[in-house]
């Protein structure tokens, strides 16, 4: 740490290999130690997403657990207006999270160090962020913007965990309504597909691949396996055991082989125990 | 027809092929054997096909058949052979012994003669050597002089070949020449004194020789009349063996019928020093059987050796059988001390069985051991003694022996009872051990070898309760009180041995049905240097007594006696003294009865203590202060309640009753869209194993705020943390139906709807305050919080299913589904099973709580989880071999520590046979699966009937390192605790084992005690129906969770969940190695640039700062031990 600090003149941005710029961050103005954020413009080859426009998105590493999306947004708004902030456990592509869930049904997010994608309104803000001098820290908790941690935070969490049963019922109802609607749509679509496969007036049937669930046979891995096993069993039933002398002799041979195997196993176990000196009674 | 022919033709051709295969096989086999010889790591045997199907030779077939038919498996036979190798003496050792014996013999033959003097004149002896004898009374008649011994012979186990390691004892008999003795020396201890003088003379001479290492006096089996001289070789071999020199009279010097058990050989007049009017009349003198047998014992060792060698030459396995029996005895601490069942008796017993044709000469050592144990288990020598005598007419009858001694086993001469010093209790203990051993020997699910011969059974871990008599001097007054003067004379003043049988029978009578077995420690043979006086009788470690309790009756506070008018009433009153009173019972009977104090379970457990101290005080004059009762010393750590001391049984019962009521009410609820199919508890409190079961308490409302909508209490900032109220998990299974959606999110929402509906109904019908959440429903009832989870049995399946890209429905196991199955299937099942176990064994819960308290205090609470700990304890009850199921929390806890520290976790699965569902074949199956896939299985592997292959409870934790540490700390704690419990001089508190060593950790986070919730409580019962209290709010566990999420890959965090005020942090050494900069690995790290390379290391300063920030309000101080790591 120390040598890297000395190398760069103060109030200069600190740049490290990989194109990342180091920003320091401290919890409050009187904190003794700082975390280092590493920022870089967001760059990907394959995917283009409207959520992360390439020229305006800042990729931020190592965001401490007490920085929520709101806090990050305010921290970075000193470089320019921030449009949106996305915090994630690991860097990766944007994922759609299915039907919209209320706060109470969302899976609990992990509260570790996270990476962030900060989308500015102007691309110039990227440069401003990257040229921020590394010895001027970003401060998380200020008087204008207190961040609750520890006991305060837990009490707040506990208080917020209460929910009015009526409201909860409403949430459930509205979700189930949406679910039923989606189900119905799905069923409708399937019905239509099935219809398409019906004979038309002239007696022609249009054969299509059809999507899942349309076929009579259950299309699943388990079902496949079951059929295979059934075949095997059938084959086995046809076989005759202990019918001929050689079969009888074989069973006897198997028995002796079994005994032998057990004997060998025990011998090896003993060798192991002996190696571990397991026979010393005292 | 045609087909048949076809096959007929085929058969010869096939066998022919086989013969051809034979030759190359042999070569291959020998090769594999050579390679296998040096292997240490076990992996499943892979015999090649040709190896397995090779035609067997007759010899091999026999060998295999023998192993199959004689033993459960050949393993046991091999194990016994290996064990015998371990205890047998090596050739080198034998040579050493022989050469040393030669030196000693040569030396002894040159003992100089001394002039004849009076026995009481010790002037010929230099002051450096004392006589190994307690001269009480002092005066004695007779002359004595030193001469070289008439002969020096080896006797005992060494010449017989039954001598075993460790503590190799070689017995050497030195015959005192006939001219030193007088045929009348038998009377009044004259012979024993002369023998002691002779030994002192030998010691004086040997002391000047450089060929002798060290020299000590001792006495044979604690009998002070029979001193022996212990010699060790000089130099570095000094500890390898001991030569025990006995001084004996010439064979046949005394007439054996002088030692008839009803003859007197110590005159009262001489012993008491008082002139009585009847003196001179021998017929009125009390018999002295013990004195007689101690003198007679000296006369016969050569004859015994001859007898035994004759027997052993007939039976080839004799020596091995005796060696096994000796190991068995030693593990049970029966092999030495006063009244022990020593190796000599073991050989004699086997010889008896051989000569009486109960076992045949051709049996193996294994069969000898088995038959001997079987004989011991089924024969009561306290009633039906056995005799090796050939012509019983000329010798005393067995009945006469039974009158004089408690245990009777007569030697080949017919005059000596070899078990003269043994108490009936010791024999009963032996019998009990033998029958227990036979039981688990026959049980194929038990590792017989290990529990029979490899597991030590010290008293502290065997007996449920233990008490010690600390001041043995007090037994002198007991002898007086019990009127035992003539017995005292018989034992030559050894008041400990005199009073012991009487005290034992007194206690046996008093404890009666409450106990299964009463045992006592055998006082060890004292050893003292030749330069000091013989130690006094009181100078031995305290006598310890062990009690095996009958679980059903031991704790009853009432001792109901006979009806007041029956003749037995007087006897009852005599036994109990003033404690006995007339009482009238509900059935109308008026009887004598004793009522002991005891309201709570933990007090009732100590009823035996009240009985023991009362009886000892009343009948034996032993004050309570000198009885040290070690029955429930450890229980203190789980004690709660200020008014009535209690270890939690009563509180747990309240919880269970309240739950039963709730479950009944849930079943009866009407108006639910689907019916309830099962209500199951899934919380330790519902199986009596929660460390601190919920207690009622008063809430101070100024410490709380109110939530706006529901008026529930919420913790207030700046105030101490409210008491922790634990939610008791209840799983409520709903009926399956087509109405359930087939989608994980939808199921979750439907479950929520059920929670809401259940809450409404409970509020409406029973007026319980409820709080529905998406994941659960909290119900506030009787001052307890029940957390009801609605479960749908197909949900885990739904979670496992997914549709892959080709539209194929695949079922893949995942963590989410496993967690759900754990919560809704396995945990409730475990809870109900263990609840059943508690009904069978009343102290199961208490043992669990002690064990978990210890695990918590030693900061292992997260590695050995509650469920794992409960299972481990359950195994102690279900598979107690070689013990019996624990009958008190303390002994259970000690065995728990022993299990943790001594079980071979690496190579063995721990099978917990819940509900006895596993058969012997399952055990082998589990074992085979385990060995085949050891590497991929959890380090601590527990198999249960429902989970034979995976060990679901220990999958996540502990890790190898943690298990190692647990094993180490457990061993250390066990040692410390056992010392503390058995040593009466210990002043330290037993809580010392609950204090973790903190110096191993890197950072200590000290917490503000006010923010750490005290214990685990329930609310006040009267508030039920009012506002919901603060539930499941524990700042410490919240903080721990945050720390683990943020820094889990850099450090380990430890904390005592039962109110510990320190969090210990251990850096992971791997995390501190600099790694190249990667976007996925920069959490809490900073970059160090050296030239072209950018490496990251943990930003320790900032992390420590984060500890402070994240635990704001909870942390008192942070103690970083920077010397442990470099920044």
TrEMBL record, chain A:
Region (Disordered): 182-232
InterPro entries for this protein: Nucleotide-bd_a/b_plait_sf, RBD_domain_sf, RRM_dom, RRP7, RRP7_C, Rrp7A_RRM
UniProt key word RNA-binding: yes
Start and end residues of each RRM domain: 56-154
The protein's name in its UniProt record: Ribosomal RNA processing 7 homolog A
Lineage top rank: taxon: Eukaryota
Pfam name, any one: RRP7
Family to which the UniProt record says this protein belongs: Belongs to the RRP7 family.
UniProt KW keywords: RNA-binding
GO annotation, cellular component aspect: CURI complex; UTP-C complex
Protein source organism: Sander lucioperca
Taxonomic lineage: Eukaryota, Metazoa, Chordata, Craniata, Vertebrata
Gene3D superfamilies: 3.30.70.330, 6.10.250.1770
Biased composition range(s): Basic and acidic residues: 182-195, 218-231
GO molecular function terms noted in the UniProt entry: RNA binding
GO biological process: ribosomal small subunit assembly; rRNA processing
KW Lipid biosynthesis (keyword) present: no
Automatic annotation (TrEMBL), chain B:
Gene Ontology cellular-component terms listed: chromosome; CURI complex; small-subunit processome; UTP-C complex
Pfam families in UniProt: Nrap, Nrap_D2, Nrap_D3, Nrap_D4, Nrap_D5, Nrap_D6
Cellular compartment(s): Chromosome; Nucleus, Nucleolus
Keyword Amino-acid biosynthesis: no
Domain Nrap protein: 170-313, 317-455, 462-620, 635-839, 841-995, 998-1117
Signal peptide: none
UniProt keyword Nucleus present: yes
Swiss-Prot/TrEMBL GO biological process terms: rRNA processing; tRNA export from nucleus
One GO MF term: RNA binding
UniProtKB keywords: Chromosome, Nucleus, RNA-binding
Superkingdom as given in the UniProt entry: Eukaryota
Function: Part of the small subunit (SSU) processome, first precursor of the small eukaryotic ribosomal subunit. During the assembly of the SSU processome in the nucleolus, many ribosome biogenesis factors, an RNA chaperone and ribosomal proteins associate with the nascent pre-rRNA and work in concert to generate RNA folding, modifications, rearrangements and cleavage as well as targeted degradation of pre-ribosomal RNA by the RNA exosome.
Family that this chain belongs to: Belongs to the NRAP family.
Entry protein name: Nucleolar protein 6
Species assigned in the record: Sander lucioperca
């Amino acid at each position: 740490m120390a040598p890297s600090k000395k190398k760069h003149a103060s109030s200069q941005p600190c740049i490290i290999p990989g194109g990342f710029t180091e920003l320091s961050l401290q919890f409050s103005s009187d904190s003794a130690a700082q975390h280092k954020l590493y920022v870089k413009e967001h760059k990907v080859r394959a995917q283009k997403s409207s959520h992360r426009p390439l020229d305006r998105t800042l990729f931020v590493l190592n965001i401490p657990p007490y920085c929520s999306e709101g806090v990050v947004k305010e921290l970075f708004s000193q470089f320019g207006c921030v449009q949106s902030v996305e915090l994630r456990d690991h860097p990766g592509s944007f994922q759609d999270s299915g039907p919209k869930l209320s706060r109470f049904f969302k899976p609990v997010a992990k509260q570790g160090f996270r990476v962030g994608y900060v989308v500015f309104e102007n691309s110039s803000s990227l440069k401003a962020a990257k040229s921020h001098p590394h010895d001027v820290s970003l401060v998380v908790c200020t008087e204008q913007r207190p961040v609750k941690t520890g006991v305060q935070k837990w009490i707040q969490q506990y208080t917020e965990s209460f929910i009015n049963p009526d409201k909860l019922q409403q949430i459930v109802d509205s979700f189930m309504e949406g679910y039923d609607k989606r189900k119905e749509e799905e069923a409708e679509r399937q019905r239509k597909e099935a219809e398409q496969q019906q004979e038309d007036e002239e007696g022609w049937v249009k054969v299509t691949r059809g999507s899942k669930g349309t076929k009579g046979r259950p299309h699943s891995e388990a079902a496949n396996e079951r059929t295979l096993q059934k075949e095997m069993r059938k084959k086995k039933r046809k076989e005759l055991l202990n019918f001929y002398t050689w079969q009888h002799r074989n069973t006897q041979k198997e028995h002796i082989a079994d005994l032998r195997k057990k004997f060998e196993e025990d011998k090896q176990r003993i060798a192991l125990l002996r190696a571990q000196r397991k026979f010393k009674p005292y | 027809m045609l087909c048949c022919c076809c096959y007929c033709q085929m058969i010869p051709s096939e066998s022919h092929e086989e013969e051809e295969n034979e030759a190359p096989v042999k070569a291959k086999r020998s090769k594999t054997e050579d390679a296998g010889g040096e292997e240490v790591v076990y992996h499943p045997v892979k015999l090649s096909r040709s190896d397995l199907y090779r035609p067997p030779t007759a010899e091999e077939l026999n060998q295999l058949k023998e192993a199959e038919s004689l033993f459960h498996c050949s393993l046991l036979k091999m194990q016994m052979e290996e064990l015998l190798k371990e205890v047998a003496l090596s050739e080198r050792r034998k040579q050493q012994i022989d050469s040393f014996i030669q030196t000693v013999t040569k030396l002894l033959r040159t003992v100089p003669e001394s002039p004849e003097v009076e026995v009481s004149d010790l002037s010929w002896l230099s002051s450096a050597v004392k006589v190994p004898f307690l001269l009480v009374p002092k005066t004695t008649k007779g002359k004595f002089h030193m001469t070289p011994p008439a002969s020096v012979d080896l006797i005992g186990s060494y010449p017989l070949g039954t001598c075993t390691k460790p503590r190799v004892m070689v017995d050497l008999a030195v015959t005192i020449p006939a001219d030193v003795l007088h045929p009348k020396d038998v009377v009044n201890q004259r012979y024993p004194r002369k023998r002691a003088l002779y030994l002192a003379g030998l010691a004086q001479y040997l002391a000047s020789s450089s060929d002798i290492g060290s020299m000590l006096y001792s006495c044979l089996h604690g009998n002070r009349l029979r001193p022996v001289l212990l010699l060790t070789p000089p130099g570095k071999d000094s500890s390898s063996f001991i030569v025990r020199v006995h001084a004996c009279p010439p064979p046949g010097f005394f007439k054996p019928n002088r030692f008839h058990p009803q003859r007197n050989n110590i005159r009262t007049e001489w012993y008491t020093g008082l002139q009585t009017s009847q003196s001179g009349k021998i017929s009125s003198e009390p018999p002295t059987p013990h004195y007689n047998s101690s003198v007679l014992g000296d006369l016969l060792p050569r004859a015994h050796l001859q007898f035994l060698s004759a027997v052993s030459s007939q039976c080839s396995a004799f020596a091995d059988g005796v060696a096994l029996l000796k190991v068995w005895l030693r593990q049970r601490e029966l092999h030495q001390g006063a009244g022990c069942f020593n190796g000599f008796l073991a050989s004699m017993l086997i010889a008896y069985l051989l000569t009486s044709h109960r076992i045949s000469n051709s049996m193996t050592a294994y069969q000898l051991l088995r038959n001997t144990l079987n004989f011991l288990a089924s024969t009561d020598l306290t009633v039906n003694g056995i005799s090796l005598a050939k012509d019983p007419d000329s010798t005393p009858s067995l009945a006469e022996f039974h009158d004089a001694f408690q245990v009777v086993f007569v030697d080949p001469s017919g005059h000596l009872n070899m078990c003269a010093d043994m108490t009936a209790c010791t024999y009963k203990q032996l019998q009990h051990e033998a029958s227990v051993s036979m039981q688990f020997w026959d049980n194929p699910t038990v590792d017989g070898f290990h529990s029979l011969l490899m597991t030590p059974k010290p008293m502290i871990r065997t007996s449920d309760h233990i008490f010690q008599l600390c001041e043995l001097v007090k037994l002198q007054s007991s002898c007086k009180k019990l009127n035992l003067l003539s017995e005292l004379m018989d034992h030559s003043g050894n008041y400990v041995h005199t009073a012991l049988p009487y005290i034992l029978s007194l206690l046996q009578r008093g404890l009666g049905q409450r106990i299964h077995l009463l045992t006592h420690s055998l006082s060890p043979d004292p050893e003292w240097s030749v330069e000091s006086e013989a130690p006094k009788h009181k100078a031995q470690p305290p006598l310890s007594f062990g009690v095996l309790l009958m679980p059903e009756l031991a704790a009853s506070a009432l001792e109901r006696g006979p009806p007041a008018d029956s003749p037995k009433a007087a006897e009852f009153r005599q036994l109990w003294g003033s404690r006995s009173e007339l009482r009238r019972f509900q059935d109308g009977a008026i009887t004598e009865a004793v009522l002991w104090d005891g309201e709570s379970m933990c007090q009732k457990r100590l009823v035996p203590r009240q009985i023991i101290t009362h009886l000892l005080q009343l009948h034996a004059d032993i004050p309570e202060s000198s009885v040290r009762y070690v029955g429930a010393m450890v229980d203190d750590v789980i004690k709660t309640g200020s008014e009535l001391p209690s270890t939690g049984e009563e509180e747990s019962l309240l919880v269970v009753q309240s739950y039963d009521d709730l479950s009944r009410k849930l079943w009866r609820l009407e108006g639910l869209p689907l019916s309830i199919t099962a209500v199951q508890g899934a919380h330790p409190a519902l199986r009596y194993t929660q460390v601190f079961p919920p207690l009622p308490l008063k809430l101070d409302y100024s410490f709380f705020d109110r939530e706006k909508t529901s008026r529930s209490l919420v913790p207030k900032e700046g105030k101490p943390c409210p008491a922790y109220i634990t939610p008791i998990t209840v799983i409520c299974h709903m009926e399956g139906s087509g109405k359930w959606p087939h989608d994980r999110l939808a199921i979750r929402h439907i479950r929520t709807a059920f929670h809401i509906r259940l809450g409404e109904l409970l509020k409406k019908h029973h007026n319980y305050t409820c709080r529905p959440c998406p994941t659960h429903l909290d119900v506030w009832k009787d001052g307890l919080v029940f957390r009801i989870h609605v479960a749908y049995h197909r949900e885990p399946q739904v979670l496992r299913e997914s549709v892959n890209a080709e539209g194929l429905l695949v079922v893949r196991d995942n963590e989410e589904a496993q967690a759900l199955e754990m919560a809704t299937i396995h945990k409730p099942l475990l809870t109900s099973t263990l609840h059943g176990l508690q009904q069978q064994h009343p102290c199961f819960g208490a043992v669990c709580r002690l064990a978990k308290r210890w695990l918590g205090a030693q900061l292992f609470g997260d590695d050995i989880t509650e469920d794992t700990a409960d299972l481990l304890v359950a195994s102690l009850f279900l598979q107690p071999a070689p013990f019996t199921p624990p009958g008190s929390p303390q002994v259970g806890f000690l065995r728990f520590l022993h299990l943790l520290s001594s079980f071979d976790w690496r190579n063995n699965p721990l099978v917990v046979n819940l509900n006895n569902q596993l058969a012997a074949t399952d055990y082998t199956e589990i074992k085979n699966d385990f060995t085949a896939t050891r590497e991929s299985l959890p380090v601590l592997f527990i198999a249960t009937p429902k989970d034979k292959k995976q060990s679901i409870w220990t999958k996540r934790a502990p890790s190898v390192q943690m298990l190692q540490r647990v094993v180490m700390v457990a061993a250390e704690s066990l040692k410390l605790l056992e010392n503390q419990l058995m040593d009466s001089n210990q002043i330290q508190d037993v809580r010392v084992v609950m204090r973790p060593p903190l110096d191993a950790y890197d950072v200590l986070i000290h917490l503000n005690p006010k923010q750490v919730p005290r214990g685990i409580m329930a609310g006040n019962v009267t508030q039920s129906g009012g506002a919901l209290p603060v539930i499941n709010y524990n700042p410490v566990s919240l903080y721990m969770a945050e720390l683990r999420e943020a820094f889990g890959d850099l450090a380990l965090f430890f904390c005592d969940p039962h109110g510990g005020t320190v969090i210990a942090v251990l850096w992971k050494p791997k995390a501190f190695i600099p790694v190249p900069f990667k976007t996925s690995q920069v959490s809490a790290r900073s970059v160090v640039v050296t030239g072209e390379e950018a490496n990251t290391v943990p930003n320790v300063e900032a992390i420590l700062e984060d500890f402070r920030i994240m635990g704001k309000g909870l942390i008192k101080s942070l103690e970083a031990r920077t010397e442990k790591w470099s920044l």
